Amino acid sequence: MSESDIRPEILALPKVLLHDHLDGGLRPATIIELALESGYDALPETDPVALGRWFRDAADSGSLVRYLETFDHSVAVMQTAEQLRRVASECAQDLAADGVVYAEVRYAPEQHLAGGLALEEVVEAVNAGFRDGERASGGTIVVRALLTAMRHAAKSTEIARLAVRYRDDGVAGFDIAGAEAGFPPTRHLDAFEYLQRENAHFTIHAGEAFGLPSIWEAIQWCGAERLGHGVRIMDDITGVGTNHEQLGRLAAYVRDTRIPLEMCPSSNLQTGAAESIATHPISHLKDLRFRVTVNTDNRLMSGTSMSREMQLLVDEAGWSVDDLRWVTINAMKSAFLPFDERLAIIEDVVKPGY
Ligand SMILES: O=c1[nH]cnc2c1ncn2[C@H]1C[C@H](O)[C@@H](CO)O1
Ligand SMILES: [Zn+2]
Question: Locate the Adenosine deaminase domain: which residues (predicted)?
Fold first, then answer.
C-alpha cells in the first residue's frame, strides 16, 4: 500500500505516536540533497524514488542487525546543526500532515558527533528543528524528543544526564536501542538507576529480537515505564486461541500494571519479529486489553506512516475505528508529558476527532 492509497477518513483521524526514530524517517529527497551538499558519496541510489525503495528492500532482511545497517546512510547526513535542524523540522511537518497531534521522536545524540558537534549542540539543533516544524504546521502538532543511548556503546549514563538536563526544554525521556541479542538492558543499569533517582522517564527497546529475559530485565531490573515493541511478551502466554489461555507471571504483570507496549507492526515484519499484519500479536494483545499502542518505528525503512499502519490494521487485521480511538487514547495516556497536558490533548483534540 502506498501513501496515495490511504483513505481520507483515516488520514483525518488525530493520532499519537510514541515510537518513531528521527534517523529512520528522513525524506529520501532530503538525504540526496544533504549528501550532495556535504560530499557524502556512499549513497546506494541518487534518485529519491529509487532511494526510498532501496531503504525498504534493504531493511526487509528478516534480521534486526541487517535492518540497522541501513541507518549508516541517514546518520551520515545528520552531522551538522543545519542538517539536524532541517531533518527535525521536516519530521514534525510530515507527522503533522499525517494527522499526528502528539509525537515523541527519538534519536541517539552520540551518533551525530562526527562533524564536531558537542552533545548539547545536537540536542539544541534538533529541538530548534522541532519548534520550526511545529510552527510551520500551524501548531497542530506537539513534538517532544526522547534521547536514545546505543546499547552496544558505553555512553548511556552521559546520555541519561543529557536527557535530565534538557527535561524542561523539549526532551521528554530516554531510551536504549540497537542490536538486542547480546546487549541486555542491565548493561546500562547505572543510567536507569540515575534516571529513577531523578524522577525521569524512560522506555527500553525490549522483546523485539530477543525474548522474555530482555523484557523482564527492562521492567524488573531497570524500571522501564514503557516497552519499545514488547511483541515477544506473547512467549509468556500459553494456550493462545484455546479455552485454556493463560498469562504467565511476567505477561500478567505487564497487563496488570498497564505497562504500555509501543508496537510497530510493519517494522516487525521486516526484522522477522512477526509474520504478517493479520497475525501480528498486536491484535491479540489488544483483545486481552494490554495497553497497546500503534507506532511507525522507522517511516523511511518501512515506507510507512501512522495512517498506513492504522489502515493496514483495519484492512488486514479487522480493526474498527473504535479500536483506533482506543489505541490513540492509550498512547496519549502513556506519553511522557505532564498529566494535565496529556488530559488536555485527549479531551480537546483526540476525542473530538473520532
Ligand atoms: O526497531 C529498532 N530496534 C532497535 N534499534 C533500532 C530500531 N530502529 C532504530 N533503531 C536504532 C537505529 C538508530 O540509529 C538508533 C537511534 O534512532 O536506533
Ligand atoms: Zn525502535
Answer: 14-351
Q: C-alpha distances in angstroms, 211 versus 38, 112, 136, 175?
A: 40, 30, 41, 18
Q: Which domains does the chain have, with CATH numbers?
A: 8-346 (3.20.20.140)
Which residues pair with residue 173 across a beta bridge? 146
In order, the DSSP letters of 134-189 are HHHTTT--EEEEEEEEETTSS-HHHHHHHHHHTTTTTEEEEEEES--TT--GGGGH
- What pLDDT is recorded for position 2? 75
125 Cα distance to chain centroid: 20
**192 within 8 A of 206, measured Cβ to Cβ:** no
CA 279 vs CA 33, 161, 274: distances in Å? 39, 40, 8
Which of the four pLDDT bands, split at 50, 70 and 90, describes residue 61?
confident
d(CA 104, CA 99): 14
Ligand 1 contact, 21 CB (< 6 A): yes
Distance CA 165, CA 293 (A): 28
Residue 268: CB within 6 Å of ligand 1? no
The protein residue with its alpha carbon nearest to ligand 1, atom 5, reads: 178
Does the model's pTM come out above 0.90?
A: yes
CA of 268, nearest ligand number: 1
List pLDDT tens digits, range 185-225.
999 999 999 999 999 999 999 999 889 999 999 999 999 99
